[in-house]
Design a protein that fits this description.
Elements lengths: L1 H5 L11 H24 L4 H28 L28 H15 L3 H13 L3 H12 L6
Helix pairs in contact: 4-6
C-alpha cells in the first residue's frame, strides 16, 4: 500500500515539436560560433584581450549613448487626438492599369453591365450595384478614357 503512494510515476515522452528543433539548431550554431571564437582568442595575450574588450565596450557604449542623446534632443511631436484613427479619403484615388491589355477586361465588364439592363431581373441587379457602389460607372468611364489612346489628327 505504501509502495503505491511513493512510487515514482514515469513521465510520458513528448514528441519533438518544430520549436524544439529550432532551439536545438540555435544551440548547435551558438556552440559552433563560441568554439570558433575561443580558438581565435587562444593566441591573444591577456592584456590584448582586455584591450579589445575595452575597445568593444567603449565603441558600442558610445554608440548607444549617442542614439539616446539624439532621441532626447529631437523629440517627435505628439500625435493630435483627431489623428489617432485613420480615416479613408472621401474620393478614392484611381490609378489606370499599367497595360492596355486590361482594356479588354474592362470592355467585357462594361458589356456585362449593359446586358444586365436589358431584362427585368438583370435590371434589379444593375440597380442594386449602382445603389451600393455609386461611383462604379464613373470610375469605369475614367479608366476607359485613360487607357484608350487619343485619336490621331
Amino acid at each position: 500500500m505504501i509502495d503505491k503512494l511513493f512510487r515514482r510515476k514515469r513521465k510520458e515522452v513528448q514528441p519533438f515539436t518544430w520549436l524544439d528543433h529550432l532551439r536545438a539548431a540555435t544551440r548547435t550554431r551558438g556552440l559552433r560560433i563560441s568554439g570558433w571564437l575561443q580558438r581565435k582568442t587562444l593566441t591573444l595575450s591577456r592584456a590584448r584581450l582586455k584591450l579589445y574588450t575595452v575597445m568593444f565596450l567603449l565603441f558600442f557604449g558610445s554608440w548607444d549613448g549617442w542614439i539616446i542623446v539624439q532621441a532626447l534632443r529631437h523629440p517627435h511631436p505628439a500625435i493630435p487626438v483627431g489623428q489617432l484613427h485613420l480615416s479613408h479619403p472621401v474620393l478614392p484615388s484611381v490609378r489606370p492599369p499599367a497595360d492596355p491589355f486590361s482594356l479588354v477586361g474592362l470592355q467585357k465588364f462594361r458589356s456585362w453591365l449593359d446586358s444586365l439592363q436589358k431584362d427585368t431581373t438583370g435590371r434589379k441587379v444593375y440597380d442594386s450595384l449602382v445603389q451600393q457602389r455609386p461611383g462604379l460607372l464613373d470610375s469605369l468611364r475614367k479608366l476607359e478614357l485613360s487607357i484608350t489612346p487619343p485619336p490621331f489628327k
